[in-house]
Design goal:
It is a single chain. The chain has 164 residues and is mainly beta. It is 11% helix and 28% strand. A hairpin with a 2-residue loop joins strand 3 and strand 4. The longest helix is centred in the N-terminal third of the chain and has 18 residues.
């Protein structure tokens, strides 16, 4: 009996990826136990925009407000800070460290409609809120349409004139 199997050209890539993952795990980590390391910290950010402002909310729990720096230069918003590792416990007593620590920098290119002189920031319960108001000329304006004023003109489409 003959068995027909379908050939998958991408199966070899999956096998190669598995082998590379295994190589890196053996070189930089231990198979049986997880390494105790602190990884770099990059806070999650939500960005909202409406007709009046652009708002950012950064999750930075455990970061003191004195460890945060917010700057606006050349239509670029840069937020830097640091979540410091608590030295209350000895590192050898830890079995697992999942929280991330260290310095971070988040950079955002701002639209030209933002008024950089009016930027405000607040910090409450681990959330850093940054409000970037829009310039007055950038806010949408509603144009009223006048109806039935009696001054309407009718325009007729004219074709090209024929010269004889």
């Amino acid at each position: 009996m003959t068995v027909i199997t379908r050939w998958d050209p991408f199966r070899e890539f999956a096998t190669l990826q598995d082998r590379m993952n295994h190589l890196f795990r053996n070189s930089y980590g231990s198979e049986g136990q997880e390494a105790l390391t602190t990884s770099s910290f990059a806070p999650a950010v939500d960005v909202y925009e409406d007709e009046h402002q652009v708002s950012l909310k950064l999750e930075v729990p455990g970061v003191d407000e004195k460890d945060l720096d917010i700057r606006v230069e050349n239509n670029t918003l840069t937020v830097t800070g640091e979540r410091k590792f608590e030295k209350e416990e000895k590192e050898e007593n830890f079995r697992r460290i999942e929280r991330q620590y260290g310095s971070f920098t988040r950079t955002f290119t701002l639209p030209t409609t933002v008024d950089a002189e009016q930027v405000k920031a607040s910090y409450d319960k681990g959330i850093l809120k940054i409000s970037l108001p829009k310039k007055a000329e950038a806010k949408p304006k509603q144009i009223k349409i006048s109806v039935g004023t009696g001054n309407e003109k009718t325009l007729e489409a004219k074709g090209p004139s024929k010269a004889a």
